[in-house]
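Dear support,

I submitted the protein below through the web form. The confirmation email said the job was done, but the results page showed an empty box. After a refresh the structure appeared. I'm attaching both so you can tell me whether what I see now is the final result or a partial one.
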Amino acid sequence: MKPFNRLLKHLLGVVALSVAATGPALAQTSYTVGATSTGVPFTFLDIKTNKLQGMMIDTIAAVGSKAGFSVNVQQTPFSALIPSLTGSKIDIIAAAMLKTEARAQIVDFSNPVYSYGEGLFVNAQDQKSYKTLDDLKGEIIGAQVGTVFVDAFNKKGIFKEVRTYDSVSDMMRDVGLGRIKAGFGDRPIVAYQLAQGANPQVRLVKEYQSTLMGDVCLVVRKGDAKLMERLNKAIAELKADGTLTRVVEQWKLN
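What the results page shows now:
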């Protein structure tokens, strides 16, 4: 019986190894995440630590912890995020990227983690009330390249020109210098930067009513269903236990 017992133990060991090999071991344990360095407070470069920080950095870290994978955050310009994802240079986008129908044709979006609209800023000396886009008809305005605002403003067709900028700070500079009438950016980013004294020559128009509301999500390659399932499951659990709410509050986005 002893040889049989040894054989049985050996077979059971083989089965156990096979199960392990076809089970959790197949789940990827690390992902490369693309994030921008100019999207305060969603994603930005902390000059003290030389590391990317922000609401979306904390979000993907929490999602990874909940889903059982680590993240390697890679600094990527906003306009290069989707090309880097589709080109497999990164696996996930964690940035202030709104979900749109056009983008959804190219990449897949997770369930929302935050929602917001565009913010309008003008020269600090300009005290006029701007409530809608129509109040800026015939003016030269600015928007960040790669955002949904550029196409929407051009499509509206009421502006003299829609200039594009690589960063909100560059746009603020031109508004402050009077080179353009107004600038548009993600409202939480604009509000946060101005509250930190980013550019005293411009002001946020508080009465302006956002028209391009959208959801901020994590983004993966088209058809990556397994990763999407892991992300959505973790997002749901983080919403349920209050973690995402605490992250939003920490970055003063509520």
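Response: this is the final, complete result; the empty box was a page-load delay. Residues 144 and 168 are 6 Å apart (CA to CA).
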